[in-house]
Specification:
heterodimer, A: 346 residues, alpha+beta, 7 helices, 16 strands, B: mainly alpha, flat, binds protoporphyrin IX containing FE
Chain lengths: 346, 270
Amino acid sequence: MPSTSHSLKAAASLPAAHGLTGPAGPTGLLRSLASLRLTLGLLVVLGAAILMAYQSEEWRSWPLALPLLALSANLLAAVATNNAFRRQLPLLVFHLALVALLLLVAAGRLTYLKGTLELTRGATFEGRLTTTDAGPFHAGDLAAVRFANQGFTIDYAPGLLRGDTRNTVAWTDGDGQPRQAVIGDQEPLKLKGYRFYTSFNKGFAPVFLWLPNQGERRLGAVHLPAYPLNELTQAQAWTPPGSRSPVWIMLQFDEKLLDPAGPAAFRLPEKYSVVIRSGEQRVELSPGDFVDLPDGRLKLDGLTTWMGYNVFYDWTLPWLAAASLAAVLSLGWHFWRKFAAKPWDA
Amino acid sequence: MERELQILWAAIVAYVLGGVISIVGVVLKKHPERTVLGFLSTGLLLHTVSIGLRWARLEHGPFITLFEILSSNVWSLMVAFLLAYWRIPRIRATAAVVMPILFVMMGWLMLSHPGEGHFPPTYRTPRLFIHIGMAKVFMGAMLVAIGVAGVILLRGAGIGVRKFDRLPEDKRLDELSFRCLAIALVFDTLMLITGAIWAQDAWGRYWAWDPLETWSFITWLLLAFALHLRVTFKPSPKRNAWLVIAVFVLGFITFFGVPFISESPHKGAV
Ligand code: HEM
């Protein structure tokens, strides 16, 4: 068996590796760092760090990074000095895959991006997020990403339990060809390394035509709070573009849109009105109606929907998958080899 | 639903009969192995039918409520143990340790409410089966390990030394439980990987320290710790047996405890 000859060779080189330098020399230091007792201690420390990370978000950076760094140093020292790794190639591959995973996760933490955005039906994403959380070295090309929300459907089971979300999106691919797809739940739209996931945040958006006293007319939508989550508070403060006076907008309808008693689907109300309050003024607009405000005229054009998206960018994902696969395959290979060599009850 | 529950009851009666006969067999030093195998297989068959009927009725697998999760785990642990029982005749007497653990789960199953739960849209994917399948193999391997570890500890405590004398010596049993632990580590690793892949698309992130993720990772670390302890200190079979129990208990709490006390989206467990 090849491993026997390896182990003989490894054993022969052992005294030299132990070295004449003794424990105080660099080799001795490396050997102490490679101690398997240290591994055990560090695994316990890591376990404690994980429990702390679980308790509080503040503990998710250096308290985790330190034991992981120490374990990596411990492991690399063991790779350099421990003959077990020379005798057992799959075991070596497994441990190196663990280090690779660690490095990839670290690289991912430094360059990731997480964010949210909302898009009115028919509107195009223009590279700007509502909220962003990114690693210090994030360098993706989000500003160049474009896609349009073409509307969604969501089914609800009795009891208002959300079923599948199907959101049609459109974009132009690298060859300039128009493309369309239905995304939703676990099917994100992937563009330039960014993954856009539909979220449970979605709702209604009254569409207004704003005719300011001075300046150009604008058509736009105001996103009301998520529906049905905020079913009873379909109101929002909003300041028309270029205006100094905020208005308060509320959507009113009498229909029961999503009846918990049976299956239902997300839809617009058939009859609705929008209440506008500005200072002392209060009016109720039906589609086509308008109100004169201090800075211009506001006309209700209609009602549409908006969809909330979560954005995620992490270029390490395929590499993480590859390193995980390498880890688990080599682990299986290691044990297979070990167990096939001898029956358990021999 | 009535029919499903009646068949489940019948399955449990068959399991309990098989288990009790195996325990009595160990105590009386008899070997009713074929009878035990017969009862347990019958139980498994009936249990499969009961799960199948419920699956067809609800149009989704047993992955949502505590009742479903317990039922599908009793089923998969039974499959794992029956495989070991059938393929490794020398350790059949470990049924005396394993079956009482399964009895506890069966009792819990019978007490839990058989009502139905909501099948979330993120579960409508083959990843569900892959992820859960891995977890089930992991727990199955741990169950066989704990049966063997239990015998080592019972013999060490002077209980049933003669009753278990047909089993191999402790050193051999220790090797077998170690192999089960190794299989458990491979499948626990696979479970974490497939879970992370699924979570990436179901929840937009591959890891977020939710309670189930955290506790599964700690279980994985404990497995790594246990295997390392073996190579570093070469502990006695008795000490190793305690480690096996520790991993099993942690795995058990993770799968059957954490999902039902936490508020995170990671609800249905195994
Ligand atoms: C980070 C520091 C680590 C070091 C220095 C280290 C070192 C070693 C060494 C030297 C061996 C070979 C022992 C021998 O056969 O004589 C070994 C085995 C092993 N290690 Fe690690 N390891 C580390 C972390 C881990 C982690 C995090 C895992 C996670 C699962 C792990 C899993 C294993 C397994 C499964 C074996 C094989 C045990 C066997 O075949 O009996 N190790 N490790």
